[in-house]
Task: inverse folding
């Protein structure tokens, strides 16, 4: 008698191929769930025209370096966006046209522009009508006497 004949077939051995198939079915189901979550929760384009912006990066850096030397402060408190502007000597900047692009950082479709009103003493304010709570970004731009200054401020609306 050979050794194979002496060895009895265990009834559990017939389940081994099924275990292999079940393993790969579970992996395929999990992969399917991960793909569904990734596709259904994607919020949109992160950056419009990223290639062109990448090519113009040095130009963007040069613009940032050539901004006027001013003192500025941005705050967002109790629903009020405030930008204080003064020249390098501390004299408030008057008659500045101030605009803000309000951007929902984590979700597309909620961005809008507002104009900040001059309150006197180099203070410009607006109350943005934010459709939801969370993280927002204000891209502020001020223009006066053929000069322009830009800055950004991230804030949390509650």
Result:
């Amino acid at each position: 008698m050979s050794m194979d004949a002496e060895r009895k077939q265990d009834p559990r051995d017939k389940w081994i191929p099924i275990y292999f198939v079940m393993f790969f079915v579970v992996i395929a189901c999990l992969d399917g769930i991960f793909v569904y979550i990734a596709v259904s929760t994607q919020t949109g384009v992160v950056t419009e025209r990223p290639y062109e912006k990448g090519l113009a990066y040095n130009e963007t850096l040069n613009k940032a370096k050539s901004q006027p030397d001013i003192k500025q402060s941005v705050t967002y408190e109790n629903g009020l966006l405030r930008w204080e502007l003064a020249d390098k000597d501390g004299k408030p900047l008057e008659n500045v046209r101030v605009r803000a692009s309000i951007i929902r950082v984590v979700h597309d479709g909620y961005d809008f522009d507002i104009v900040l009103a001059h309150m006197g003493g180099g203070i410009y304010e607006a109350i943005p009508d934010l459709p939801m709570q969370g993280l927002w970004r204000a891209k502020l731009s001020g223009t006066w006497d053929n000069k322009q200054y830009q800055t950004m401020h991230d804030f949390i609306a509650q």
